[in-house]
Structures are given as C-alpha cells and as structure tokens.
Amino acid sequence: MDDAHTVVWNRPERAAKGPAPSRTRAEITAAAIAIADTEGIEALSMRRVAKELGTGTASLYRYLASKDDLLDLMLDAVAAEDGGPPAPTGDWRGDLRTLAYRSRATIHRHPWMTSLAAGRPSLGPNSLDATEHALAALDPLGFDIDVMITVVNTLHAFVRGYAIGELAQQEAVRRSGVGNQEWMDAHAPYLDKVVRAGRHPLLARVIRDAELPHAADSAERGFRLGLERLLDGWEANLPIRP
Amino acid sequence: MDDAHTVVWNRPERAAKGPAPSRTRAEITAAAIAIADTEGIEALSMRRVAKELGTGTASLYRYLASKDDLLDLMLDAVAAEDGGPPAPTGDWRGDLRTLAYRSRATIHRHPWMTSLAAGRPSLGPNSLDATEHALAALDPLGFDIDVMITVVNTLHAFVRGYAIGELAQQEAVRRSGVGNQEWMDAHAPYLDKVVRAGRHPLLARVIRDAELPHAADSAERGFRLGLERLLDGWEANLPIRP
DNA sequence: CTCTACTCGGGTACAGTGTTCGCAGTAACG
DNA sequence: CGTTACTGCGAACACTGTACCCGAGTAGAG
Fold first, then answer.
1. Is B24 within 8 Å of chain A by CB?
2. Where are the alpha helices (DSSP H) in chain A?
C-alpha cells in the first residue's frame, strides 16, 4: 500500500492497471460490521474478517492500509444507514429531535460504535453529510455560523455521551461472557456494602426509591428528558423569536 | 485469582495468610496511568507495566484478575484526583458548572479516559462519590429523585460526549505518529475536494468563515456555550422558582 | 502480436499481546 | 514444627496486526 500517506476516503478503490480486485472495500466493511454486531468488537480481527470473506488475511491489505482504516470505514458506513438524514421540515426543534433519535437508534444497533468513535474524528463522507443536514435544520434560525456549529456539536455530544452511559452496563455484561443475572449477582454485594455504609444517602435513594432505573423504557425517557432540556436552552436563546 | 467471580472493588487487597505482597493495587494503577498518559493507551501492556515496576509480568495477576480490572481501577483512580469533588455551595448552577469543568479538565489530563469509559460502567468508589456530590448539588431544588438522576446523567453525558469530540482529532494525530502539520496535510486534499464539490454549503461556511474553530480557546468556548444552554434548560423547568 | 510493467492474492514469518501453569520460597496458623 | 496458603515469576500457549515475498494474471506500449 504505497499511498498510505493519503486518507482512506481519498484513495482510489481500483488501480489503473492490473487485474480487477475480487472484493470491494464496501464488502469488507460490511463483513466487519456483521462480525462486530454479532460477536462483539473484540472478536473483530483481520483473520476473522478474511475467514468471513473466504480470502487470505494478507489480501485485505490490498484494500486497506491498516485495521485502523477499516474501523474508520465501519464508522462511516453505519452513518449512512436508513438512506441518509431526512430533509429539514422547517420545524428546527423537531428536526434536531429526529436527528438525535436516529443517531441514538444507530448506536443501539451497533454498540461498538461508542468505543470506536472515541479518538476518531468523524470525517467520512456520510458523517459529513449528517453534519451538513444538522446545520441545515438550524439555518433558518438566524444564528451565526459559529453558534450553529456549536449547537450541532453539543447535540452530538449529548447523544454520544448519553449512549455511552446507556450501553456501559449492557456492554460490560456482554464482554464478561456471563448472563445478566450472574453479572448482577457479582456486583450486588459491593453495591449493597456501599449503600449500607451510609455515606451516599442520595445514591441510596436512587437505588432504593427511584422508579426510573427499574422501568423498561427508563433509558429512553431519560434521553428524552435530557434532550428536551437541551432544546429548551437553545429555544430560550434564539436571536429571532418565531 | 480464585475470586474472579467477585468485583475488583470488593476484593480484599491482602490475603490472610502467606507472605506480604510487595506492591499494592494503587501502585500498579499509578504506574499504568503514567504509561497511558505519556505513551498513549495503546502502549499500555501488562509487560510494560511490569517493566515499569521492575517485577515479572505474571506477578501482576496476583493483584488483578485481568487487564480489564486494571482499566477499571485506572478510571476510578483518576476520578479521585484533586481530592474529590467540592461541597455544594447552595448555588446549584455554579456547583454543576464546577463539576462539569473539573470533569473536563480530568479528561484532558488523561485523554485515554474517553475510549476506556465506553462500555464500562462507572461503579468505582470514587466515581460513586462524584455522583453523590452531583446529586447533593441538586438536592435543595425540589426535583424528585428520578429527575435528579436524569439531570446528573445528562450533565455527565454532555461532558463526556463533548470531550470525545474535542479530543478526537488530537488523539488521531497522536496515534498516527506524525506531527499535527503532516496530519493536516494528509487530510487537506480530501476536505478540499468535499468543499469544492459544493454539496455541503454550510460545512463549507464552517470551514471557511467560522471564527471559532481557528481560535485557540475554541473548544473551551464551545463547551461553555453548550453547558450554559443545558443549565438554561433546567433552570426554565425548576419546580420551585428561587 | 509480444513485451513490459504493473497489480492481485495469499502463504509465511515476526514481533508483540493477554493469560495460564507450575515451581520455589516464605509467612502465619494449629 | 509441620502444614497450609500464599507470593513472585520464567516459560509457554494461543492469539494479534502486518511486512515480505512469491507466482499468476492483466493492461497498455511498441
């Protein structure tokens, strides 16, 4: 791979000369995503991908400069699911809410996203499309461009950060290899001890009295609550009141 | 490690019988944090930690059931920096702002946190302390416990998510091994092509016209802006108006 | 058409990873 | 004082990403 100095998005898929490649980057990416979805991100190895495609491991390096490139491609590929973001409707609040929920759904479909996205700027073409559409929803509001990008960044930050919290336990359980009940049983004595020690009265109230953590849709309700407050904050600071 | 079924926080540090261990979990954790800070999280291996401490690699497994345990300990250790969170002052807005800024500073000091925190619930004693203090700041406001924990979760989500975005490029540059300029040079042709293609007019405005991304304190100003809007959103929904 | 210059696929090899096993030495309990 | 349970750790195992090199195959040049 002689053009490793270039970025993967800017590298031609097929060489000018020579025989035609038998796979495509998209094929390889799709196989990798399938593995990460079903077996977890820690099961994703180049050898595993090669086996899935029925090729030799070293062949993959004809398409990708490194595993890092593959991870970049995976992140950008899932950003294009559902055929790209919807067009702005004029209701900025509804549009942003829709984008946030779509983003959340995507992360839930691919929990490995959260760990990959950390430390990896979203510069793929599909991610850029998503950002453009988010900006478009804000365009009619009269913010200047600096505020607009800040709003988009903040929304993005909330969605990603919230999803990380939501999926943390679920992912820990999955990685541990045991069932949810066994995982709980392993952690219960420790948490009991903390609560019983009495130095965390409010946390104890959360564990004992709170209804939300025990509800089936607790995460979704918390997400909506946080999101609406965020939108409230911007609505209260619109330069042009509708 | 026969009690691997237990959680690391709940495992006794020293055995009842036998010779005294020559290191402590805290020592090992500190060494690991130092390596991750200076050489990056991908340089953190059990062998590297052992070398740093001058021990054999296998000895570490007398203190930790797995590398995963070590990562958990690292995350909780940094949560205790600066001697724990400050006591509530009565100004809930200021208190939450302080907590958010402290959290951001910690992440900046340890950029590897973002990738570790994904998929790992924060159940360590120091993390629980931090959550307790955040709840305490909200206690006088009259929210019920469900809303309180939602507010804390949302704040946490915003801070973590924003930091991920802030550090993404910086981490990508570091991991690539080349300097910032070379990294920029490698990405510029691709971004130029995207802008020139004309299908992202708002993104083009951000890249060309926005002042914020070029300012030295851009990330900090964006963080403050997002945080204040979030606080605005809650202030507008207080059950008891002060 | 031949020749040349290139690419493609992939077996092999290398350095590194997390973790287990077994063994020698040591401290405390009965 | 013997027994027991621990400690430190060298060696080994099964994996990882990926560089190297090879024969085979294809496109354009002359």
1. no
2. 25-39, 46-53, 67-78, 92-109, 113-117, 125-138, 145-176, 180-197, 201-209, 218-235
